[in-house]
Amino acid sequence: MNLKTKITLGFLALLVLLGSIGGYAYYTVRGLSTGSGNILTANFYSVELGQQMLQALDQMEIAPGAPGASPRFQQALTREAGNITEAGERALVDSLTQTLNVFQRQPTVPALEQLRAQTHRVIRLNTLALRHKNDQLAQQANGAGRNLLLVATLAVLLALLLVGSVPEAAVLPLRKLTNALEHATSSNFAASIPVESYDEFGRVARAFNRMLVQLQEYRTSTLAELVTERNRARSVVNGLDEGLLLLDENGRILLANPVLGELLGLPVAQLVDQLAADVAQRNDLLATMLRPLGAPRRATAIAETPLLTVTRNGEEAYYRLAVQDLVNFNEASDKTEFVGQVLTLRNVSDFKKLDQVKSNFLATVSHELKTPLSSINMSLKLLQTDKIDAAERTRVTDGIRRETQRLLRLVGELLDVSRLDPGAGIELNFGPTALPDVVAFATATVQAQIDNKQLRLATELPADLPAVRADVEKTTWVLINLLANAIRYSPTGETLTVRAAPAGKFVQLTVQDQGPGIAAEHHDKIFQRFAQIPDKTGYQGGSGLGLSIAREFITAQGGRLWVESELGSGSAFHFTLPVAG
Q: Which residues form the HAMP domain (predicted)?
């Protein structure tokens, strides 16, 4: 049964009880009123008539011959005869009538006294009946009063029961709901409401408990998402190659990633929740980072801050400071407020190295250009004199031709580099190519250099070597470059080997020298642009572009170029090209 029905039935019961009290009171009062009316009609009227008859008798006794006394007695007696209500009253009235007849025929004092006595008996009879009926009415009134008091008491008790139970029945579930809501607002979703009934509050309790379950599930999923996002953000922050420091508006450290802790030489746990100014007093790098923040022209001070040099993993790394203010719009004050700063140390080591490579390249190119130009200039001055003979003139002109070819080769390499820039692309003319022809042409080109250094050239080319799909010009250029490097770094009198062999769907060509070799940590670096790996004596010449261009050419043709070498054991440069067909 629901609460509404309970309350309705309770008030209906109270209403029925009150109606019963009212009906009973009305019925009782009506009965008392009727009884009193009957008394007045039946007995009190008879008493009045008796009094009138006595008055008429008194008049007849005083003045026996007075007119009107006897008729008055007769009239009152006649009315009394019409108002007979009590037992024995009829006999008394008949006796009075007979005595009156006797008195009227012969008025005597005994007859008069007899009439008086009989009238008194009529009055006494009605008086006694009046008193008896009055006692009955009193008893009825007392009983009705007790009944009304009892019913009123029951009504009051029922009303008190309703007053005590209905508000409590309404307030107790609300109190339980309030307590559960307070627990829910404190993120305690386990404090459910016991379901003790199937009324409205029972339905509210079940709905509220379902809501708590859903809130718990939502909170769990939300917490999982937040943890996931926090872990993702932490992974991003911790994975940065930049030192990151987050300060609040008071300069207190809120976040520091491991890179910054490594750069500062302090554990992250010792940085978080510390005032940055206090930490800077015992850490020079942090003091340098915070110094521009207090400058009058902060942006200029940050821009003019020199690169910070920090040693990491045994190598010098270069970092540039960047500062970003954090602001937040406060809806309450309708203002934008300063809430903190993000300081980052951006790793610019690669840019610094590129700048160094550029400087080295300019120095190398200047040297490469200066040497042949100086030689050509000296040779031209010799040609301008008339003191050299024809043989010497021929030797000088041959030198000018060699230096000119060297300049052309260097300029050609620079042009090839510009073509290999992103977006420029490499123009290739693919076709079936016989590698023995390429080897023959390349070795013939460098034969003079081989002879000049007294080297021996060995070629190992199988007779059944398949043709490759390649650009003849680019492939020949690569082989000539590899041979030139091998000649440059091979000791006098050693042997150079050029071999080729099938390797699955590719053909592999190798240039083997007996030079000083290359350390394993430099195998990839030598294929970078402008890279030069010095040894104890230093490399002789070269712009550091040849191997970079060669790898680009081979890769563009679908092959691969790499080196196998150890210090003191010579070097073997390999490249592959796909088989034609």
A: 168-220
pLDDT tens column, 83-116: 887 788 788 888 888 888 888 787 888 888 888 8
Q: Which residues contact 241 (CB under 8 A, 6 or more apart)?
A: 259, 347
Model pLDDT for residues 385-412, shown as the tens digit of each residue: 777 777 877 877 877 877 787 677 667 6
Domain boundaries, the chain: 241-329+336-347, 354-420, 431-578
Domain 431-578 has CATH 3.90.550.10: no
How much is the average pLDDT of 305-315?
Answer: 75
555: β partners: none
Burial 254-274 (b: 16+ CB within 10 A, else e): ebbbebbbebbebebeebeee
What CATH code is assigned to 241-329+336-347? Answer: 3.30.450.20
How far is Cα 510 from Cα 483, in angstroms, rounded to an integer?
10
Name the residue among 527, 515, 440, 423 with its Cα closest to residue 475: 440
- In terms of Cβ atoms closer than 10 Å to its own Cβ (0-12, 13-18, 19+), residue 423 is exposed
CATH classification number, 354-420, choose in 1.10.287.130, 2.40.110.10, 3.10.50.40, 2.60.120.430: 1.10.287.130
Length of the chain, in residues: 581
Q: How far is residue 288's CA from residue 170's CA, in Å, rounded to a whole number?
A: 69
Angle 130-133-136 (CA atoms, 0-180°, nearest 5)? 150
- Nearest CA among 257, 346, 273 for reference residue 305: 346
What percent helix, strand, coil does the chain show, rounded to 5? 60, 15, 25
